[in-house]
Design brief:
The chain has about 250 residues and is α+β, with helices and mostly antiparallel strands. It folds into 2 domains: about 70 residues; about 170 residues, Sandwich (Jelly Rolls), CATH 2.60.120.260. The protein is about 25% helix and about 30% strand. It has 1 helix and 13 strands. Strands 1, 2, 4, 5, 7, 10, 11 and 13 form an 8-stranded antiparallel β-sheet that branches. It has a 5-stranded antiparallel β-sheet with strand order 3-6-12-8-9, with no helix packed on it. The longest helix has about 60 residues.
Length: about 250
């Protein structure tokens, strides 16, 4: 017959064994859940990559249909189509989508939602004629009815030779008369073009114009607004370069 001490020891051993079994079962369940989570993550990654591949194919199809994207008739006015711009996150379907509009023979980029709005473009300055002229670069765009947080704060813009320390200006994507009272002033405001689109000047540069000129090399222009506000409802047609005095 077991003594009380032996019974207590037996119960303790049984409790320890049960605890070890429960601990092992918990660990196995945790490992199974982590494995399922990893599989879900991998599945989402594959889905995202498939969407990106589809998006790249769509962009290539747009390019094939439209031909060369740089639209220039006489070298004075050159439009860098949105599809040839470097738009941060434009290959992520949750943030941007590529679509067509009747006014443009090129694909346009529609902003769905993003907090980091950054758009840059480059152009071979030797294609611009005539030389020794001050050129201006403009962002060409429209708003959708769902536009949000595109009226403030002002963004930063620049244009000039690649690699140079080009001056940065503050710009609004809205006309000056629509600026909110008390908000920060800017160097440039948007205007409406004759074709119905909006434009805002990003900066100026001189081709073969001396020390500060582009000297026939590449020029770069850009716009960014990275305050952290989630923006939406912007349709980017492209960036146009033309002599400063041309309208």
């Amino acid at each position: 017959m077991s003594t009380p001490s032996e019974k207590i020891a037996s119960h303790l051993a049984e409790a320890v064994a049960t605890l070890e079994l429960l601990t092992r079962e918990f660990e196995l369940e945790k490992e199974a859940l982590e494995a399922e989570k990893d599989e879900e993550i991998e599945a989402l990654k594959r889905q995202l990559e498939a969407e990106r591949a589809k998006l790249r194919a769509t962009r290539l199809a747009f390019q094939a249909c439209a031909g060369a994207s740089n639209d220039s008739e006489d070298g004075r006015h050159m439009m860098i189509a949105a599809i040839d711009l470097n738009i941060t996150w434009s290959d992520t379907p949750n943030y941007w989508r590529w679509t067509a509009v009747p006014e443009s023979r090129h694909a346009v980029a529609e902003l769905l939602q993003v907090c980091w709005l950054n758009i840059t473009g480059r152009l071979d300055a030797s294609k611009l004629t005539p030389p020794n002229v001050t050129y201006a670069a403009y962002l060409v765009y429209k708003f959708t009815i769902e536009s949000l947080w595109l009226d403030l704060p002002p963004g930063e813009a620049y244009a000039g030779p690649v690699g140079a320390e080009n001056s940065v200006s503050k710009i609004y994507l809205i006309p000056e008369e629509k600026q909110q009272a008390g908000s920060e002033r800017a160097d440039q405001y948007a205007t409406r073009r004759a074709d119905g689109w909006m434009e805002v000047k990003l900066g100026e540069f001189v081709v073969n114009g001396g020390q500060e000129g582009a000297d026939g090399g590449e020029v770069e222009m850009g716009f960014r607004e990275v305050s952290g506000c989630w923006k939406q409802g912007l349709i980017v047609r492209g960036m146009e370069v033309r002599p400063r005095d041309d309208k």
